[in-house]
Specification:
The protein has helices spanning 10-18, 24-36, 42-55, 64-74, 79-85, 94-107, 121-133, 137-200. It has 201 residues and is mostly helical. α3 (42-55) crosses α5 (79-85), α3 (42-55) runs antiparallel to α8 (137-200) and α4 (64-74) crosses α5. The protein is elongated and about 75 Å long.
Amino acid sequence: MFRRRVKSPLSERVLGFFWPKIGWKRSSQYVGHRVARLPGTPYSIAAGFACGAAISFTPFVGLHLAGGALFAWIIRGNILASWIGTLVGNPWTFPFIWVGIYRLGLYMGADGGHPGGKLNFISFFEQLLHAMKSFDIAYIGEIAWPVLWPMIVGGTPIFILSWPLFFFPIKALVKRYHARRVQRHAIAKKSTFTGTLHHDE
């Protein structure tokens, strides 16, 4: 459904991930169209998308697809829609998300004991993923956790607040799309019926 018949070069795909060829506006419209065409009720599609979008505001990088799908499954949302929703977290938005939830966590009093100074979150998550693969518990506990804890605390209310902000607009979008589809089918059926009558005459 989402795959291209002929794959574009790797460099083109990487560039397209950071800056879509058709532009952000048309790209957003394309995603919205794809979401609206997913099978399921407006609730299930919107709930799934909202789960994927909301999980993007957490520091669990690498687990967003699984986390979004899990939350969607719990509330009977569309799992495929949750995967699409995780696109809210991308190379353009992640830096703002990470800084925002980290600072919010500190503001809420979640001081993990980090010595301070400017954080390079990209480097931080690269090292964290490497530590997780190599089971470097010392790094995770002593260096990563003081940064992760404020991000978890700050990301939790953003996760809760962002869910309805995505759910209700997506639900309205899907309902409009379904209503137009029903209307088109009714018109097509009526035209076919009328044409049959004229042919019989």
